[in-house]
């Protein structure tokens, strides 16, 4: 049986750090998975999305090192709802079950933390689209003039 590594560390993750979690993302989010971001796990907590998702065929045994709650949720094809609101977020005041910070603020703070802790990994896509748009704007196209 293979063994999987736990999700990457983040000071803003709320899911257990010693096991690998499955993610409970809506279908529309699956179109653009972003490794390294914080997202909701199937066990109702927050963990870092790994570079390579776990691929498990139907009927195949789960690898070792998985979060038991996530596996149960997956087997039952349900998503564990986040527990009841226990506090107000210290940043935005929204009710949250994730301790002193809500999921949204944790995601934001995680992204900031990640920017300060990685070099160059987030820069790849930032410049290209703008430059391309500027070039496009300078081009005047004449179409449909041919006799
Ligand atoms: Zn889990
Ligand atoms: Zn908040």
UniProtKB/TrEMBL annotation:
Spell out the Low complexity composition-biased ranges: 128-141
Disordered: annotated segments: 123-147
> What's the protein here called?
Uncharacterized protein
Taxonomic source organism: Nonomuraea thailandensis
